[in-house]
Design a protein that fits this description.
With 305 residues, this protein is of the alpha/beta class. It has 18 helices and 7 strands. The longest helix has 26 residues. The termini are far apart.
Length: 305
């Protein structure tokens, strides 16, 4: 961008402060701390390092981080903190490194800025540069979230296109990574704990970001140290919220039908028809789109007059 301060100002306003971002990045620590058990050379590369929150966190954890970015405003934020950064694009930075020379390669909110062919090459180069057992982290907006896919993603004028989870996961496995984990990120704590989401929660509450954490092949002894974080489940997906919402609506309708049965308001044929609908496959699949919660509340209101 011609305005060197624009993107840093944009990030400061729309992404969040340094401490917030650093706290969010701590979710990746279980994936990387085991690297310290088998290697003293803990050099890392962060592509599109931005304001340097990840570089700062890595340094605090005993790693030797190096970051590249093309935005001078972002790089200035890093140099103010004496972080090791350079103005360079992702592919050039990777191409300059020897085989199996880095423990971690990361890119936070960079893949959505890249043409698809460049992203393919970045993943292939990352595999070459990583040490055996090394970790690749790619975080990006989650188009599974309807607000992100239809509005939020396009707030950033430098975004190219959303990358679905399944595509990015396929790419890292296709190009040779041993395993990959999808982490859904940044959903609200309240919704994560809720068993009764409403329709707006289903439409807008899916984790707004996700990451692919991929690991390069290594000996079984090395890989087994990372099994715990790779076996966890992270965040909230659309299917999970649909299931919770469906259970909520089914419970409300069942309760309303039971009250109607006891009050003898509905005929037996009507009751059987509603029960059949309730247990049908089409009912389960279309639950979030019907907004049936309002109907159930109306039924209950009629029954309690």
């Amino acid at each position: 961008m011609s305005d060197t301060n624009f993107y840093r100002a944009f990030e400061d306003k729309h992404r969040g402060g340094r401490e917030l971002i650093k706290s969010r990045l701590e979710i990746y620590l279980p994936f990387i701390m085991a690297l310290k058990q088998s290697d003293k050379d803990l050099k890392t590369l962060d592509l599109g390092c931005g304001r340097g929150e990840w570089l700062e966190l890595l340094s605090e954890q005993g790693f030797d981080p190096y970051g590249v970015d093309l935005d001078e405003g972002m790089l200035h934020a890093c140099t103010q903190l004496r972080l090791n950064v350079e103005k360079k694009d992702a592919l050039s930075a990777l191409a300059a490194l020897p085989d199996e020379s880095r423990a971690i390669i990361s890119g936070f909110h960079i893949v959505e800025h890249l043409p698809f062919e460049v992203l393919q090459r970045v993943i292939q180069e990352a595999l070459r540069v990583l040490k055996p057992g090394g970790i690749l982290i790619l975080e990006t907006p989650n188009p599974e979230n309807i607000v992100v896919a239809t509005s939020g993603f396009y707030l950033d004028p430098t975004h190219v296109k959303p990358i679905p989870q399944e595509l990015l996961a396929f790419m890292v496995e296709h190009y040779g990574f041993h395993r990959a984990k999808i982490l859904r990120l940044q959903e609200t704590r309240e919704l994560r704990a809720s068993s009764e989401p409403n329709l707006l929660d289903v439409m807008f509450g899916v984790s707004p970001d996700y990451a692919i954490v991929a690991q390069k092949g290594a000996s079984e002894e090395i890989l087994s140290r990372f099994d715990a974080p790779f076996s966890e489940e992270y965040g909230l997906g659309l299917e999970e919220l649909i299931s919770r919402y469906d259970q909520r609506i089914a419970g409300a309708l069942s309760h309303a039908l039971e009250e109607a049965r006891q009050a003898r308001i509905l005929s037996q044929d009507t009751q059987r028809g509603l029960e059949s609908l309730l247990h049908s496959r089409s009912w389960r699949w279309t639950a979030p789109l019907r907004g049936f919660g309002s109907f159930a509340r109306k039924v209950k209101k009629i029954l309690t007059r």
